[in-house]
Amino acid sequence: MATSRELEWTTTGKEVVDAFADYVKGRTFLITGPSIGGIGEETAYALSLAQPTALFLAGRNISKVQPLIDRIHATNPSIAVHFIQLALDDIQSVRRAAAAILALNVPLDVIINNAGIMFCPFALTPQGIESQFGTNHIGHFLLTNLLLPAMRQGGRIVNVSSSGHFFSGIRFTDPNFTKGYDFVDAYGQSKTANILHALSLAERLRDRNIKAYSVHPGSISTGLQVHITPETVAPAIARAKETWPREFVATSLERERKTLEQGCSTTLVAALDPALDQHNGAFLYDCQLANHLVADHAKKLEDAERLWKLSEELVNGTFTP
């Protein structure tokens, strides 16, 4: 049994933390995208209930994170909570954020790459990368690599992906959609990248005993859907019903949406459950292993390696963890 069968789609983050409280107490966690009204907020708050040593909350604006910091300190004022200014779509901002974290000289136990954007109009990052790929993958790729020197052995990295990875594999010859933009494919490419990135990390960090996982949190109403209207989402839903596994269609599109408290639970299982040590690189959904729900284009180590090389080129750096 990889995870407790008592954990399933209605499980809340608090219930996961209660189950694995010993793996929270005294540890340090970094969460990207902790703005109020999202699963990052609930991920951080649930962790705060079990006595972590420190929480690093990395987001674009302090105004969107301060209410979470106040909420955490109202429950437990002893937790060290650090806001880190981070714009994932800007490589220079990512480098500044990593430097700020490293300067505090606090060992990291878990990195949760949670932040993301979805179905956006075409835009390029300051470095000329398609915005969904740049924000959802490239920013996290660089941040994670820059922070690896601070990670303890036995640590974990969790990439929040999506069932939407089925929409597209990696467009290795045209990741920027220079021949015509499709916002659904662009989102799918970025979510496939999250899965392949976790596979690469699992392989490359094996000797350091650092594990990596990717998750689909489920269908949840959050600020992520800011660009979604009935008109824009209808074609995507039609495509999903034709191409996704039936299990994903039934649970992501036809089942009632998860609450924010439920939406963070699979991320927390990936971050905390010791039973997953034997499943390095795995994909999780509804608090359980779900490798059978990964698209073929997100499974191959050779594609993960190609993505790693492409990502290095885009950030102008070489990383050998």
UniProtKB/TrEMBL annotation:
Q: Does the keyword Oxidoreductase apply?
A: yes
Is the keyword DNA-binding assigned to this protein? Answer: no
At the top level, the lineage of the source is Eukaryota
Recorded GO MF terms = oxidoreductase activity
Mind telling me which Pfam families this protein's record contains?
Answer: adh_short
Write out the entry's keywords from A to Z.
Oxidoreductase
SUPFAM superfamilies reported for this sequence: NAD(P)-binding Rossmann-fold domains
Name the protein family: Belongs to the short-chain dehydrogenases/reductases (SDR) family.
Q: What is this protein called?
A: NAD(P)-binding protein
